[in-house]
Amino acid sequence: MSANKFFFVFKDSLIESDDASMSIVSLRNPATRNATKYLFRRSSKKACSLYEVNCFNEQHRSWFINESVCSNGKIFLPTPIDPLFLVLPYLVEHCSERAVPLDQILIDDKFPCTSQLAEVLPADRLSLIADEKRAGSILALKYNETKALEWLVSKCHRLSKVIGTEEGPTARSLNYIKEEKENEKDEDETGTLHTALGIVSDYLSLEFGRKLSVALGFPEDENISKKRKSVVDLESAVVKRIKKEENHDTTPIKLPAAEKKVSAKAKALAKAASGSKSISSFFKK
């Protein structure tokens, strides 16, 4: 059996070129700031694209690969991701007050591959969330929250249109609403936009998700914080349970003492002996 093999599902366009190379690296998740796996694809034309690696896992699963058995039954599915989501937290952290060159922004001691994000970020894309300051050949960036929110609002509206045209559980539920309620068009648009907000917010910090909700015209969305909090609570509960199992930290249960049954013969002997002295009393002075 082999545990060092992994099962990936790729789109044909990702692997049809023989001169393309792919590498998997760890970068900070833009929402949780925890380590997450991403895939860089580079071609001979110096074109580079970024994908997030989604993992589907079920217990007791293996793969038969040719003549071997892969005990790692996970399925890895790379999907495209906008690199601006990953760059946004670094812009907020490093250049909210002053303009800073990009190579000084994408620095993370714990995740050295963060600098590779510059390869998938054309200058025109960065101008969507930052102001450009040029001095000769040096290009510096200053974070612009107004631009960033406009970019995110536009992304939500585009995604909302896609959701409205796709068939699936969301589309069926929206069709049901359409049949049951008046003002169906406005309600459908609101529903798809709210769904788009939830998807985009998965790539944003909790604070930024709330700002985006307000920018879209929704009241401050408590569902975003509840969803994020539920994920954190679930992770915490799993960790505590694992530690408890490892340390065998269990609380013993005290059971009440069982009553001793006394026979009728024992009761009669006890009663007869209650008025007599013990034999040892005759030997005392």
UniProtKB/TrEMBL annotation:
The RNase H2 complex is a heterotrimer composed of the catalytic subunit RNASEH2A and the non-catalytic subunits RNASEH2B and RNASEH2C. This is Ribonuclease H2 subunit B. CDD domains: RNase_H2-B. Residues 85-212 form the Ribonuclease H2 subunit B wHTH domain. Its main location: nucleus. It comes from Anopheles arabiensis. Non catalytic subunit of RNase H2, an endonuclease that specifically degrades the RNA of RNA:DNA hybrids. Participates in DNA replication, possibly by mediating the removal of lagging-strand Okazaki fragment RNA primers during DNA replication. Mediates the excision of single ribonucleotides from DNA:RNA duplexes. The lineage of its organism: Eukaryota, Metazoa, Ecdysozoa, Arthropoda, Hexapoda. Belongs to the RNase H2 subunit B family. It comes from the Eukaryota. Pfam families: RNase_H2-Ydr279 (PF09468), Ydr279_N (PF17745). Keywords: Nucleus. One of its GO terms (biological process) is RNA catabolic process. InterPro entries: RNase_H2_suB, RNase_H2_suB_wHTH, Rnh202_N. One of its GO terms (cellular component) is nucleoplasm. The keyword Secreted does not apply. It is found in: Nucleus. Residues 19-82 form the Rnh202 triple barrel domain.
